[in-house]
Amino acid sequence: MKILNVPVFLGMLASQLDVHRAETASPDGNLHGLISAHEATLGLIHQFDVSVEVVDRVFLGAPPDAPFQQTATWRWSRKDGAERIRNRDFPDESNPGGSSRKKTLFVDMFQDGQIRKVLDGWDPDHPLELSPIQQHGVKAYQQPPIGDLPGNVSDCPLVFLFRTRDITDDGDVGQSVAQLVATGARAEVRRQTGRAEGAGLQCVRVWRSESGGASPPVNYFDVFLDPRAGMMVRRVVNHHEDYEWPGEGIVIWAEWVYEVMSFRDCGEGVFFPTETEWRVYRAGHEGATSVTKFTTNNLVVNRDLPPDALDFRFPAYALVGNPPKDGRRVVSLWGPDNRRIRDLYTGDDILQAERELHPQALESPRVLSNLVIVNLLVIGAAATILLMRAGRRRNIA
After folding, report:
1. How far apart are CA 314 and CA 336, in angstroms?
2. How many CB atoms are located within 10 Å of the residue 135 CB?
3. Is the pTM of this model over 0.90?
């Protein structure tokens, strides 16, 4: 696993970059040129459809020969400001030291700049028949496209390094490279980083402004741009010192490394990542403590997308949560033609819809408990209607 603000327009945040350039200790004075070249290449990607397979391996507490485990699949489609991300998280049955999850999780998200639609818990390969009082754990909602994406789909732009991720005590902060440079405490183009960064890469170091007031800052990003791939991001190193590791206290340093292992040359100056790795390193451990690998397939770039790429649909008789209307909580009953049938405000409204559409279901002994659940959905807190799973920190091990 954020519209997903993949920055693709040349000159985005140019004024901020100009201000920042004046403060930059760049050896060759080329910071603005590197960022502009990177943004220009991203701007050549007009539309795409890509599937991603995800495998994980956690090394801490695992046998030395433990294999990588497939943990998720994603599909990301984007065109003309509209995009759709589909995520499937497989059961987590071999998490050493952690709780296991036996159920596959599904999230389908669409947004177009006007509306964001999310369908959570719906298995498209094994669809269940829904009714107003029997939603089978399916959660659906729509809202303006503001705020962060649901956690299970928020990782997609990071996988391709279209955005960077800053691991903080408050969660994950996603930014484009241009935004990262514009908001950091200081940025510079570095010739020497003390890393085996690979021949020919350009390194931009951005010192974080959220370093606890340290002067000079001690936490930074090293962003490596690849001239052979139009200055696309090849690697990002997110370095923290004195990081408070969950469950372990302060570690002297920790690094999250995101690296594109291969690009596909799609022609006309367009490059798209096809293999990516995320690795976690920290003081006191030799080598990476966890590795996640992403492999793309069925990649379509700047060509006609498959008919289903952006064809998002709520299932028939789903209850779709909406923002409050006239101060009242409201859900919409969806029809089999992917259109709203009516708005429902109370449990009585939902029960009446059930009588009209599925009168036989009222004979079920589960009706009362289901009705309590939908009443909570209708009149409960906003977080109930606009339900989204919290973002998970991948590769935190």
Report:
1. 9
2. 21
3. no
Instruction: Show the domain range for 193.
Output: 14-301
Which amino acid is it at 75? Answer: R
Q: What is the DSSP string of 84-133?
A: EEEEEEPPB---TTS--B-S-EEEEEEE-SS-EEEEES--TTS----BTT
SS3 311: coil
Assess contact for 206 and 181: CB atoms under 8 A.
yes
Residue 271 lies in a domain: yes
Domain count, the chain: 1
Tokens representing 9? 């327009």
| Domain contains 71 | yes
Is 125 part of a structural domain of the chain? yes
Burial of residue 105 (number of CB atoms within 10 Å: 0-12, 13-18, 19+): middle
Q: pLDDT of the chain along its 397 residues, tens only?
A: 333 333 332 233 333 333 333 333 333 448 999 999 999 999 999 999 999 999 998 877 777 778 898 889 999 999 998 999 999 998 765 554 444 556 788 999 999 989 999 999 999 999 999 999 889 999 999 998 876 666 566 677 777 888 776 655 455 567 889 988 988 888 999 876 555 555 689 999 999 866 555 566 788 999 999 999 999 999 999 998 888 888 888 999 999 999 999 999 999 999 999 999 999 999 988 889 999 999 999 999 999 999 999 999 999 999 999 988 788 889 999 999 899 999 998 888 988 999 888 776 666 555 555 554 554 454 343 333 333 333 344 445 5
CA proximity to 231, closest of 88, 33, 61:
33
Count Cα neighbours of 259 within 13 Å in the Cβ-side half-sphere: 13
The answer to the question of residue 378 being in a domain is no
Cβ(179)–Cβ(32) below 8 Å: no
Q: How many CB atoms lie within 10 A of CB 341?
A: 17
